[in-house]
Amino acid sequence: MFGIGFNGAKKSKRPARGSIVAALDVGSSKVCCIIARLDEPGSFRVIGVGHQIATGIRAGTIIDMEAAETSIGAAVHAAEQMAGETIRNVVVNLSMGHPRSHGFNAQVPVSGQEVTDGDIRRALSHARTLQAGPDQTLVHTIPLGFSLDDSSGIRDPKGMYGNQLGAELHVVTAASGAIRTLQTCIARCHLNIESMVVSPFASGLSCLVEDEMEMGAACVDIGGGGTTISIFTEGNLVWTGAVPLGGRHVTSDIAHGLATSLVHAERLKVLHGSARGNPADEREMIEVPQVGEDERSGSVSMTRAFLVSIIQARMEEIFEEIRAAIDRSGYARRVGRRVVLTGGGCQLPNTRELAQLILDKQVRIARPTRIAGLNEAHGGPAFSTAAGLLLHAVRTPTDLMVTGHEVVFTTGLLGRVGLWLRENL
Fold it and tell me: Which among 19, 256, 302, 351 is placed 20 to 30 Å from 413, CA to CA?
């Protein structure tokens, strides 16, 4: 059981100009730390980046605390060395614990009187009545809008008159045990968690443009151990989901199908792989080292078409699962025809074309935007989550922490209410 309580909540201040903000992306394939310096309110410049192959983490779950701690420490140390700074606080992503989206409507009577700040406070605080099981912890509470009697879609009800005030909320929860494990692992690296952001939320913030957030779009982040999905509409995050398939599954299929090692399978995928085949693939031969054999004498030749057929089969499965997840979300119509792909797993040639075919939507491949200081190596789709964590820390128009959790106003559509909350809670 969990709840949201506004009693005793304290306001967190925005970072001051010149202050340091650090983001830590703990993924299944890599751990990345980005350190930025705040130049102007809402604007920052990256001064340090460190990344490390993730060990002790599988499919978004920590399976070896010591190995995971080593990966996190190495990534943070590399970023600190580049930045010339030592960090103590980080904004960290949450991909483990199977984050779940819940819709919730709170209703409070206002008895025909003018809606006041206190009424808004009561409507939002009613979210504490939400029950989601004893093993779930609240991660985000996102107000989507208000209603007053029979009128819905109200952005700021203050000053209006009615009998019944309602608040529509999007709540994201995750398994308590997984969160505590991640917190302990990061604490063992002598770091404090400033806030947690679910991975699909961070990816969407860094890759979607404001028009996409407003009109409706899905951001699909294909990572190593899995794929996360976020749906935005009317400027707000309205749903998050995940598919337990990612780039590592493609690599594993290649290793099994070609009888080669995982290292060579990854290399073949990067050098010769494609999400869709073409007739020329039948004429191109590639050398495939066999597992357990000498690399020079134990290689076999096969067509590129065979390699691509293995990749395409798994990529088709991933996109079919993504399509099914979006359909189940209840927001498929709000997504319209716009899907944005990001993450390391979307970088294979022809991935966009395959996605458009299976999802039957307009698809673009995105990398982090609006971030100064990221070079070409660290500005690709694989770094979208880490970049989104920085944007969340610096640009999200609310920094209100509520009993250790967070109320989020993503792009300012409820900005006046968010301002009131920051000033009065």
Answer: 19
CA angle 108, 141, 37 (to 5 degrees): 140
Which candidate, 60, 14, 383, 62, places its Cα nearest to that of 224? 60
Record the pTM. 0.85
In angstroms, the CA 180 to CA 182 distance is: 5
Tens digits of pLDDT across the chain (425 residues): 333 322 223 334 555 667 889 999 999 889 999 999 887 766 788 899 999 999 999 877 899 999 999 999 999 999 999 999 999 999 999 988 888 898 888 888 888 888 888 888 887 776 555 656 678 888 888 888 888 888 888 888 888 998 999 888 888 989 999 999 999 999 999 999 999 999 999 999 999 999 999 999 999 999 988 999 999 998 899 999 999 999 999 999 999 999 999 999 999 999 999 999 999 999 999 999 998 777 666 789 999 999 999 999 999 999 999 999 999 999 999 898 899 999 999 999 999 999 999 999 999 999 887 676 666 667 788 889 999 999 888 865 433 333 334 444 444 434 434 433 333 33
